[in-house]
Amino acid sequence: MKKMTIDDVDWISELPEPILHHIYSFLPFKQVVQTSVLSKQWERTWRTYSVFEFDSSVFNLDLWGRFLGDNGGKKEIQRTRTRLFNGLKQTLRNRCFRELTGLNKFTIDIQFSKNPEFSSFVERCIGCAIGSNVQELKLKFHTFGNERYNLPKIVLRAESVDLLELQGCNLELPSNVKLSCLKKLCLSQVFADDQVIEALVGSCPLIEEMSLSECHGFKNLELVGLDRLHDIKILYNKGIQLYNRRLERVVIKALNVHSLAFVGRLDECDINVAYCQNLKSLSLSSTFIKDEWLCNLISELPLLECLYIGSCHKLESIKISSPSLRELCINGCVKLAEVDIDTPNLRFFNYFGDMISLSSNVLTLSKIDLFLFRNKFDTLWNVKYIKLLAQFCYCSEILNIQVVTDEDVIVPVELRQILPSPLSSGKHLNLQISKIPVHFSIAKVVDSLLWIAPHVKTMSILKYGHSSKSSFEFSYKKPIVYEGGSASCCKSLPVSCWQHCIKEIKVEITDVNEGRNKIKRYYCFEGPDMYGKIDDLCSFSITKSA
Question: The pTM is what?
Answer without folding.
Answer: 0.82
